């Protein structure tokens, strides 16, 4: 097992993931993700909670979604980088903002969702599966090589 590392912009909040290789990632081009990231899309990885450990202080923001599930966003209280999150809809998994991995240049993108909000001028790889809105969870999880959360 390797220890994959990452963290916030200032280095105060760091994490390690025990895994054989970097997790696969997907991009979400929805308005919420654009607003939240201040960028064209969010890039996300999901890892098992028991393989994930963070050190440093976190500021936690709680957001109830339309579906009734609650998401908990953890950010660095010093530099305000949003680093990881959990969601009551997928217990046992941590979502990592993929750009926070130290080796983010080696990440693989396996899906694009909400491409109906994709910013003009951004060309997506035609080989990568795309959905105009959300992808069916079982399809997305299988592309990410993860079992469906129970
Ligand atoms: Zn920081
Ligand atoms: Zn989104």
Automatic annotation (TrEMBL):
Keyword Lyase: yes
Keywords tagged on the record: Lyase, Metal-binding, Plasmid, Zinc
Top-rank taxon: Bacteria
Stretches assigned to coiled coil: none
Domain CENP-V/GFA, first and last residues per copy: 4-115
A molecular function (GO) term: metal ion binding
UniProt cross-references to InterPro entries, sorted A to Z: CENP-V/GFA, Mss4-like_sf
Organism (species): Rhizobium ruizarguesonis
Family recorded in the similarity comment: Belongs to the Gfa family.
Protein name: Aldehyde-activating protein
